[in-house]
Amino acid sequence: YPRVTQEELEQNIVAIDVVKHTTVAGQVLRWAVLTTKNGFAVTGKPSCAVSPENDDPELGTKYAIDNAKDELWALMGYALKEKIMGNTGS
User: The whole model's pTM is what?
Assistant: First the structure.
């Protein structure tokens, strides 16, 4: 049966940008912006430590990217379903 694989998802990503924002209270949020082969950009929910003192840039970046990949996964699944159903979008 057709499916979206982890490999296909990874191969569809051509660029990853991580945007960091620090709130007035010092809390750090990170969003990942994934750019796909066709130029479409996808973001996910931000990563955020409860306390600014607990902010770990490496983990925050990882979670932000994982969150964005979850969003891309759903979009690729939708596109596959459209293809299966024969809807070309024309």
Answer: 0.90
Nearest to 18 by CA among 36, 34, 3, 2: 34
Query: Is 90 exceeded by the pLDDT of residue 82?
Result: yes
Separation of alpha carbons 13 and 34, rounded Å: 6
Instruction: In whole angstroms, give the CA distance from residue 41 to residue 7.
Output: 18
Q: Is 83 left (phi over 0), alpha (psi -120 to 50) or beta?
A: alpha
Which residues, in sequence order, are CB contacts of 79 under 8 Å at separation 6+?
none
CA distance 43 to 79: 17
Q: Strand ranges (DSSP E) for the chain?
A: 13-22, 28-36, 41-43, 47-48
pLDDT tens column, 67-76: 999 999 999 9
Question: CA torsion angle for 50, 56, 58, 59 (degrees, to 10)?
Answer: -40
